[in-house]
Task: structure prediction
Amino acid sequence: MRMPVLWFVLLVVSLFAWSCQGCDEQVASGKDCATMRCDADQVCQAGVCVAGELPDSGWDSADRDLAGTGCDAQRVPCNGMCCAAGLVCNAGQCQAACENTVCAGQCCAPGEACESGVCSAPCAGERCGDGLALCCDVEDVCFGGGCVSQGASCTRTEECDIREVCEPSLGRCLSRDQIAVCEYRPPVGEFSPTVGCSWVPDGLDFPNRGDIVATPVVANLTDDNGDGRTDTDDIPNIVFLSFNRNAQGCCNVASTIRIVDGECNPDGTMNTVASISEPALTNDSGLALADLTGDGVPEIIAITMNNDATRRPQGTAAFRRTSDDGASWELLWHNTTYPRWNVHTRGGATISVADLDADGKPEIIIGNVVLNGQTGELKWDGLVTSGGAGGIGNNAFLGPSSTVADVNLNGKQEVIAGNTLYDHEGNVIWTYQFTSNNSACGGQLPCDGFNAVANFDEDPEAEIVIVRLGEVFILNHDGTLLWKMALPKRDCALNEAGPPTVADFNGDGRPEIGTAGADYYIVAKMECDVDGWEALGCAERGILWKTINEDCSSRATASSVFDFEGDGKAEMVYADETTFRIFDGTTGAILFEDDQHQSNTRIEMPIIADVNNDGHANVVVAAAYSNRGDRAGLKVWKDLDGNWVRTRRIWNQHGYHVTNITEEGKVPAQPQRNWQHGRLNNFRQNVQPDGLFDAPDLVVKSITLDNPNSCAVEARVDLTVVVANEGALYVPAGVSVLVEVVLSDRTETVATLATTQRLLPGQFETLKVSWALPQNLINASFAARATVDADERFNECNEENNRLNSEPIRCTLQG
Result:
């Protein structure tokens, strides 16, 4: 029968001894009867001769020879004996044929069903607990070894009741009481990034388009497990734009959308699910992913190119999936006008998705342009509503990069584009007037700045961050200036600086602002802008730290943030023209660098997400080579020892913040305000769910023989192995289970199996394997062994209980 969706099964190997003919006539009481016949006043029970007599009925004359030593194919073993042909074993007694369900050779009582080899009362819901003794209601879930009522939908524990936690794989609030204390804390300071896999376009459409200069995005776009749903049980996908830099040039050229499986192949390659090249797509603008239509699958939104001879960035298109495997996509809509070339953008535009008016229908935002998410029609253009005076969100020659937030706490979201705050209908609320510059503007459109949102004071309203012309601004929600700081520079002619990140870099509970200038990567800190800043550990007045980079080309490259070790201090993740680096958040010291990187740099950045659904963060880094050769345009980095903490399985847009998107790609009508939650008071930082150090505890529960006659008659061993998760964190499908034969002088592999479904705390899965007994093991004594998580993929709170051996086994063929 099909196991309930949430059950995982462990592989159980319990082997018995089988029949013997032509053996010695006598064996003493208590001796092994697997290969010898017991005395006349004895019977064989559990492989040992004990005093006793056969039952009065139900046995034929040959039973004494076969009792406990294996039954032929027509007879069922029962309490150490062999029932006569046609009889069944019920409660240890041979009886007439069962009128009800027969389960593992046992006759079930009326009304009982056979579930996992046990006669049980029918259960409409899910079986749970030791020996499957519990039957959960249909609405409940087996969690922590008990039946638990599912609470409200959630993406973070902050959304649940104080007595609940948000179970990340279910996306539901569950009782804290059901979760065992099971933690794995990675060692701080042991930082070992390594490439898990990389992508090249060999054999694909446009195989020379292998360079990437726009930020990748991540979400679940394919039904990988075939359950008819696309959700967090599946493997996330990485989506990006690829082009041919060597042949086409660096910027504003045609590209192809690639949809790639986030699971790395064993050889380090990656599988491309689909490629989309029409309508013509520009190469250097940010993609976005979100469910625009409400069908449960995110759409892909991209900036297109105009169709005249100039072939410049103009227009926006949305694509929707037409096959569950993600191989087929169609155009949902195409707005050929907005954003407009040389009006809103000259390259490097980024896309945001949000529900501005809280009606359950997301909008598309590019700078100060808002489109209907379902049709692509223009809803409003901020240049029109502002009379041409409103901000767009450009800096240097790139953008726009704007963002969205309910700044005024009125239940409707505003658009922050450069120095202007627009309401959800496009009306200007305020525009900040700049009075200083720390760099010239290298673009032909006005430089009004890139944006982020966070809380830098004690009031509940958001503050707006602007990075523009070498300066960082923090504005109050009413548009008044809270703080500004000039960014240091060295020898590049211009220093406009890139889109800001916000995070707690040094663990003091206060947010800092990170941005990439032309000469330095800088972390600005308002608390450093005081007399005596040296004593506070600041590098300069207003600057926590700075480190030299190389980005005179665009001077507007973005960056991202993540707390890899879970120590409360976020690391900075950044790639310039030549090098990918991860910086210590407190000091700016280089924790890791890869000098094989190359990019002409636009407005792109690395992103952090759990791209393979294994409970650990990954870093996705794009590259664009002037002469790519066989070098990869995309690399997925992981920690060599699996020590990076877990995080969400989504990064859906350039201006990413946790509360604006669920892990299923749904856009909340009224998202929680990230700046009002301490650990979410950040921007362009992925944040791991609550229970940061929660870990699984994978154990082998039992080993049993599926068919006791198979070895003696057919020289085949049918094994059933049961594994369970007794920890505090789910594991995805694909946990390895190694089955071996243990001999006196060696160990031989029987099979490597894998679980097929997600395994929540307290759940288990039953796996089966058939094994043809080799000639050298007939009449030999051996044990069977099962090891769960044999490839050590998962860090557990207890690594010592993954293995179980069977009792000694001896198998002798009949006849």
Summary: The two ends are 35 Å apart (CA to CA). The chain has four domains: 42-115, 127-178, 193-261+270-680, 693-810.
